[in-house]
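Sanity check. The docking grid for calcium ion depends on where the pocket ends up, so I'm generating a full predicted complex first rather than guessing from homology. Inputs follow.
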Amino acid sequence: MLLISVYTLAQETPKVEPPFWWTGMKVTELQLIVHAEGVAYTAPRIVYPGVQLAGVSKTDNPDYLFLDLRIGEDAEPGKFRIDFDRDEDVRYTYEYELKERENLSAERSGFGPEDVILLAMPDRFSNGDPANDDMPGMLEKADRNNRDGRHGGDLKGVSDHLDYIAEMGFTAIWLNPVLENNNPNYSYHGYAITDFYKVDPRFGTNADYVQFIGDCHDLGIRVIMDMVFNHCGHGHWWVESLPSEDWVHQWPEFTRSNFRAPVNSDPHAAEFDKIKMHSGWFDTNMPDLNQENEFLANYLIQNSIWWVEFAGLDGIRMDTYPYSDQAFMARWMKRMKLEYPNFNIVGEAWLQKEAITAYYSGSESERFGYNSHLPSVTDFPLHYSVDKAFHESESWTEGMARLYYVLSQDFLYDNPYYNVIFPDNHDMSRYYTVMGEDLNKYKMGLVFFYTTRGIPMVYYGTEILMCGEEHRGHGHIREDFPGGWEGDDVNAFSGAGLNENQLEAQQFVKQLQNWRRNASVAHDGKLIHFIPEAGVYVYFRINENETLMVVMNNNYQSVNMPALDRFDECIKGRRQAFEVIGQLNIADISAISIPPKSALILELK
Ligand code: CA
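Predicted complex below; grid placement will be based on this.
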């Protein structure tokens, strides 16, 4: 027995990440993290044509080594051994693989203004495989009676309903993080990752994720992966024995971030506040990663490339963007653009104001003393304006003027047409609740999101008027999608059990999203808007071939179409139009009236 165990020990496989890589990448350097007991006392060896072991780095923890590989252009796809020698024995060995890069991988196009994104929380959308609800080794078991617990939703559940998603007119899916969150409780949301290279087994396997993305692509649906660089989960394998003391931000006692992202761009900000902002922890169970550590920086950059390449991603949504080291984030984006020039990444910049949001949007040249190189940001200022605009009576700054003034600050963004715009998301009170459960306001707001500039994102359940207030707890805004679990009384996929308003809303979303899919003018048309007058906001989207005219009546009475001469620079004398929502041909738009609290989408003829 003793001999066998010694023998097994000698053949031990260390943990190596990235677990494999590709030939033909733009950047030929690859840095491997190796984790095994006393691995720093070994001497690594690689013999493979075209691959050079260019450097070996140790940290203050002898259980880690970092290997710098140079993968030459002449390196062929294949497998080779990395041997770790000690005392003339091979102490550890790892079979490394360089895979062949898929054709056109570098040319992949990212999501863009032509898309409508569905945001779905994988634990709460549909349970396609009850057998994976409780998995061996995973600390938290499913409990559908617990609002903050895991409910059993998974990748198969989303895959099973891709037909519904496609029929609703969604062209892209962003799932909240799917990577392993092996934490004892409150693990369903996915933002406390415990393994950056592994899909949570309660959602499926890595192979299931690849399959899911393939299924999406078959239906013309793009997939955006939610990634988190700012922190990991407490249960991450490296937390117990960190590669180095500065791997995570350490404090004498637990110190939370001040969550004041404006300090990053504030010319008057105190160092104390800045440090607390990005080095304070997001939460007690989320160790704050220090991207100023060069090895961790490489780790995170390679991890994101690995997923793009391995899973065939169409985009990334980066969580808590302002909380990470901003010099690192810009470096990451430059590397991503080098490998994938046409890719798209949206950074979550949860900020109240336009200027401090635009600070995070990248550009060709440096503005504001900083260039993130980030193509897309989440447009929270637009969200907050919609939250209020439809409830208010008109004034110089309120009501429709709110929408106008937000958009009038678009000069701050390099490309505002790439802002991701949204009625709500997984962290906010649900849209229908915020709209006061008023179907007219709900529809007006959606028309705005589908027709103004930006990339619309719609949270699952919005189409069936799901309600929920954030202050009551996140469980209330992340309820299970009805019909996603066997035996559900209501089935939103089939419509069974939905009330009249829900069916009307679902049909409305379906109609407009399908219209938008083919309405290229709503994707790339230049936005021209007119100062709202008397509660009526008129704007246009104009491209070479088409002109779209949107008229919003925010009054509780119907109004006549405003005199058209004011808009003639866009209308150019035309009077005929097709109204998209009511599906009506209109002979003379000057003669129509707009019902109370409603919008018209006019395709000018
Ligand atoms: Ca399941």
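Relevant for the grid: Confidence is low (pLDDT under 50) at residues 1-8.
Also worth noting: Residues 127, 129-130, 132-133, 152, 154 surround calcium ion (CB under 6 Å).
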